[in-house]
Amino acid sequence: MVVGLSPRIRHATRAVPLAGGRYVVIVRAERSWYGPHRVIFKGDSRFYGRTSNGKYELDVTDLRNAFLFANIVSEKIAAFRSERIIALENGRSLVPLAQGPKLAIHCMALDSFGAKPQYDVLSLRGIQPMYAARLGGWVDRINLEGQIFIATGEPPSAYTQIFRNGVIEAVRVGVLSSSQRPGFIPSLAYGEAVVTYLPQCFEIIKKLGCSAPVLVGISLIGVRNMKLEVDLEVALRMGGASAIDRDVIMLPEIVVENLSTPADSLLKPTLDLVWNACGFRSSPYFDAAGSWRGRSAY
């Protein structure tokens, strides 16, 4: 499984000792979303499937369907995210939110769209909305989609929806705008909100029993003509900010293969794109190794 399959699959092995010095080797292979997988052995390579009657070699039709299945899952995820962002842009959030630009995080396990699972989302407790340190409190509510955790206040400024298929939608108003400087995005607070909340999303996914890979989509909604707010040190070193030229920035999805991976290392290339949109080379709040520093790292 290490050298005989292409692409490789994630697996675990365990040797169970038996009487007489013998062993049984147990191999557990996770479901793969990168199939079909080619078997390579002694210079020969073929694609196989398996039924209750045993294995069989895939023909042209089988191969076409296998490749199409992977594409269909990707298309479902892209369509779901696009539909949700359009709804948020048009004011059709899952609960009425305060006015202002919105920061949205979508965490979408491939399992959620390929196998149509139904997780026990109603058993979740203590889930905080994004950037909870600046909220007065929050409440949970069961809804048609699953369970939603809403910031207190009328109207609220944040919610996190856990869909029954394990997808997470976290939306926050207030971190992409500044009452002191209208038209500016507080760059440090916005980055901190994402970097600190993504690990919480991973913990929710683990509690539900979802498996990696997980796609993470970050979106900034209602940000046309806004600029990143930077301190004087950053401005002197990196120059002034350019205005964002579009209403919505849908950043490319991040593929997370391991839910234990540090969030900041996953996020840096994507968050740098927001700085690129404002005319900067990269975020100053990550060091050279890609770790979040929460302040200028240069």
Describe the overall structure.
The chain is α+β, with helices and mostly antiparallel strands. It has two domains: 5-58, no CATH class; 94-277, no CATH class. The protein has helices at residues 60-89, 110-114, 187-208, 232-238, 263-277, and strands at 5-6, 11-17, 23-29, 38-41, 44-51, 54-57, 102-109, 138-143, 146-151, 158-163, 168-173, 184-186, 214-221, 227-229, 248-250, 254-256. The strands form four sheets. Strands 7, 8, 9, 10, 11, 13, 15 and 16 form an eight-stranded antiparallel sheet that branches. A four-stranded antiparallel sheet has the order 1-4-5-6, with no helix packed on it. A two-stranded antiparallel sheet has the order 2-3. α3 (187-208) runs antiparallel to α5. The relative contact order is 0.12. The mean pLDDT is 87.
